[in-house]
Amino acid sequence: MQLRFWLVTGILAVVLGTTLPQETVCRAPDGKNGIPGAPGLNGRPGQKGDTGEPGKPARRTGIRGPKGDEASRQFPPHRGNTVVFDNIITNQEDSYSAQTGEFTCRIPGIYYFAYQVISSGDLCLSITKNKESVVSFCEDNIRNILQVNSGSCVLSLAIGDKVSVITSSLQNMIYSGSEADSVFSGFMLFPQMG
User: What is the pTM of this model?
Assistant: First the structure.
């Protein structure tokens, strides 16, 4: 009998709970807010916005230096171990000599120099400052195919300092031909003050 009572009471509660609207259910007042939970995961990215207005031009912060120098060579003449790039591409300050293969500093400053030389065999090259090697780069060319050898450095130069590219006497396989050019270039990054 007790089992029947609880069965009827349970069914009645279920039927009444589903048929009564929520507004008529007796509710207690809301309690105090709890502590905030942990932040959730980021949502999906939104749609791309409209293109903005163009920015204002930047203010010039540097000092305008001289133009760079660049020379190339197709058929390499040599003066001792100095590599002479005899085809002048630009020489704004007339600082590079196609006769000696040397760049002579006319304005003291910090300069960047780079070369890209085509070789048909093993090749070792150095960038020199006043005939002293600053950096050296060697490339082995086991297959004896045309390959590009490159090197670069940043130098602090005073008036009259000379920069050139030299070969070692043992490994000097600079390519001579019309298919490709070798290039030597340099330019001032900024002048030295004081």
Answer: 0.60
